[in-house]
Specification:
Helix content is 46%, strand content 15%. It is built from 13 helices and eleven strands.
Length: 331
Amino acid sequence: MNFIESVKERAKKDKKRIVLPESMDRRTIEAADTILREGIADIIIIGTPEEINKNSEGLDINDATIINPNTSELTDELVNKLYELRKEKGMTLEEARRLLLEDYMYYACMLVKTGRADGAVSGACHSTSNTLRPALQIIKTKPGVALVSAFFLMVVPNCEYGANGTFIFADSGLEQNPNPEKLAAIAASSADSFKLLVQEEPIVAMLSHSTMGSASHADVDKVVEGVKIAKEKYPSYKIDGELQLDAAIVPEVAKSKAPESTVAGHANVLVFPDLDAGNIGYKLVQRLAKAEAYGPITQGIASPVNDLSRGCSSNDIVGVVAITAVQVQNN
């Protein structure tokens, strides 16, 4: 059984309520059809009858809960709750109503906040900021978590590296230029996520263009400091660096470049030095190696809210919903 099928099976054992706000995109409705047919999760779709009908032709979403913000009896309650949550930030009742009626992601997050949904998945036709801003404003961070970050779960076919070709790439979707403390926090959160989702030991490499001092630059220094902090704060995890990508995953290269490292040559969690590297890296592997790429999956939000690449397929959405459900189970 491959990775995503195993995640689906785990999701089916304790079904969760996942809300999909992008009814204006047929891929979302196609994914809902598959999720309901396979029994992966209970689905809530936000949209008007016109949006739903337009994008559901030939599909079966009869078992989904459909919420039309314009007519739902929940809307007034959610408007008032959103106003109470954000009034100290200057939000008015009128603005709260406008957001809930015009931006379905706000409505989705309010369903999660009030316990009517367990998690949300969006981003097929909206930017990461459009997806995560409402989550951070309404659901907020999980207690005790240093920061919210994002990763891609990569499944590379016919790959001998990582966990049978399965990796986490972080941060590939949110933190633009993390400082050493944030790099350390991303490493720990990503290790937690790998352990939860892949159910194998996380082996974390903090990547650079340098391996163990082979180059000198401020960018390298940042990673070196991040490794130091991570080892001190999270000693139970295998974390090492700075490592070039080949030294991190290829045993033969690791023997020559980093022979003293227990991580080098075996890494399955790759922490990139910044968002440019992480985003470029996951897309290279996805397109050139024909890898499955699920994400950006967030870590650190009080209830799981996950993003999608705007180039995603309906099957990608199904996978992210299954991952979200398993995150909820662990919440």
